[in-house]
Amino acid sequence: MTKRRDFLLTGTAGVAAGLLPATLLAGPRDLPAGPAGDGTLLSEHFRALVDGTFRFVDPLSGASASARLSAVRDGPRHPRLDQFSLLFQGEPGAAMAEGIYRMTDPTGRATDIFVIPGTREAGADYLHAEFCIIV
Length: 135
What we know:
alpha+beta
C-alpha cells in the first residue's frame, strides 16, 4: 500500500510535470484530451483500462516489457487536482528498474511515465506510478 509520505514525494514530480505544456512531455496527438483539451491523462482514462496490458520501452536501452494495470487508486481529494496511483503487475522474471519509460496503453496511446518498482508477490513484480494533475 502506498504510504502518504511516498505519495506526496512522488506526487511532487507529477505536479511539476503537470505544470509543463503537454508537448514537452509527449506529442499531443499521442494523448487523449483532458478537461481543457490539452491532452492531459486523467484517472478516468486509466480506469477504463484496468486489466489491460501496457507496453513499456526504456528510451535509453530500447528494452521493453509488458505489465497489466491491476488498479487505479485515488489519492487525497481536492477540487482542482486529480491525484491517483496506477498499480501494474509485471511479467514474471521481467523486473523493471525505477525510471522513465515510454508507455503505450491497450488503445495505442503513448506517453512517457515515471515508474517505481513495488513489491514482488507470487513471482510477479509490481510497479506503480503516481499522478497529481491540475484540472
